[in-house]
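Reproducibility note. Readers wishing to regenerate the assembly model reported in the main text can use the exact inputs given here. Chain order matters: entities are listed in the order in which they were concatenated for prediction.
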Amino acid sequence: MRMNLVLELLDIPGQLVSVLEPIGGLGANLVTVIHQRDLKNEKGMIPVQITLEGEQENLNLVIEKLNEMGITILELDGVVRKERLSTILIGHVIDTDIKDTMDKINELKGVSVVDLEVKLAEELESSAMIVVEADFGKKSFVFDKIQEIANKKDLLVVNEV
Amino acid sequence: MSEFKICLIGFGAVGQGVAKAINMKKQSIQEKYGKKLKIVAVSDSSSSAITEEGLNEELLLKTKSKFGKLNKYPEYGSDICGEDVLDSVDYDCLIEVTPTNIENGEPAKSLTLKAFKSKKDVVTSNKGHLALFYKEMIKEANLNNVQFKFEASVGGAMPIINFADETLPSSKIKSIVGILNGTTNYILSRMTSEGSSYLNTLEESQQLGIAETDPTQDVEGIDAACKTVILANSLLKIDATYEDVEVVGISKITSESIDLAKKEGYLIKLIAEVSLDSLKVSPRLVKKNSPYAVEGTLNMATLKTDLADEVTVVGKGAGSLETASAILTDLINVIRTK
Ligand SMILES: NC(=O)c1ccc[n+]([C@@H]2O[C@H](COP(=O)([O-])OP(=O)(O)OC[C@H]3O[C@@H](n4cnc5c(N)ncnc54)[C@H](OP(=O)(O)O)[C@@H]3O)[C@@H](O)[C@H]2O)c1
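Running the prediction on these inputs yields the following structure tokens for the assembly.
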């Protein structure tokens, strides 16, 4: 049985070895490794695609081990893993064109708004809770972008920690 | 039995707490560390009580509460104040607990530098001079070969600076995320439990003495930003000052936003973030059952480290005796090295 993973690793020598070493002992064999150096992000992390072969239970152990080691798994067998991120915008949320705000968020690569709830307040300053689904590992990118969009509309952003 | 002479400048909530704490603990400190603690000078903004013989803590507290000043302290009360106090008596350690000033760090800065020059150790709860001139203050302490301790300046009784330095020296601290201001945490907690508006809750907090008459420093995140700078410098070795912190306060948080957060299982907290990438104080969403979900005036901080992973500390961020506890701990650590 084969399993394709895309891991997010620091682009420094030895990083891959330190990840692969514990895998060896779990009864799974490494078939291929592809470093996607051109996709390095601002934190110096790159996606590394690996293909493993082994029994399902051994492959499961590998996933467990990677999670335990705090390694981000971006993709599993071609499926991009998603995480839910929440944020609240406070201010003239409606007057500053909420639809445009949503569109701008949806335009971000690998990001989509899955939930929106607005509460109007007497003082005119309303609040909007926005829940997005984003590709795993994109949290700080998404929040930075939302902050940028909100700054232009003079909205206060309350992002998840 | 040798003596350890203390000069205490600032006799407000914290200064009086220090006098009480010393009164409560001097006997056990003497038994444990072989030093007899003696307060030889105390001053407030316009008066002082000074004697080489040592002042009586209870009498100091009584005098201050009865007259509002210290010049009526029997026999040793005077109008000497400011830096002159440091020249009028011989002492071993200055405990500096004057108000935090983030315009120019005074009077703390001048008092502290003067003590350093006379080769005296200094313990403080003040944040102003540290947030503005951290590097300079530490450099002067080192040049004069004296100790400069400020555990109480961040998180009051919550252990953090000494904790990281002395309990976790094996681990490198990568980031600190925490709640470093008790007043705003109280306001946000009450808004959450009562569904009340920001302004009503602020007013209630002022009536209870939790928020000050001018609450700007707390609610606009200035106080938390000062602490962010102190942690950045002392624990992450980031050469930063107050200017480098991105600050957003809580005054724009509405009860509606708190409601929305609640529905999704979140609370809104004023969070300070200290890392190489970011120095920031801002309202953030935290999960209801996470370590960030502390209530009332409590402070907390999660230290992310390389070896120990995450370690979280929680404690009372303010209060007279609580803050004095951190000052006394610093003082004991100074005494231990003598
Ligand atoms: N309160 C807390 O729980 C807490 C917690 C952590 C850190 N801190 C920090 O600890 C420090 C003291 O706080 P606090 O709550 O005790 O303040 P406070 O109650 O306002 O007391 C300040 C004291 O300093 C005196 N003072 C003012 N200007 C002075 C000057 N130029 N020279 C000498 N003394 C002067 C005041 O004199 P008068 O009595 O004559 O007005 C007063 O006795 C501040 O830097 C604060 O940020 C406080």
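We highlight two features of this model. The radius of gyration of chain A is 20 Å. Residues 139-152 of chain A form the longest helix (14 residues).
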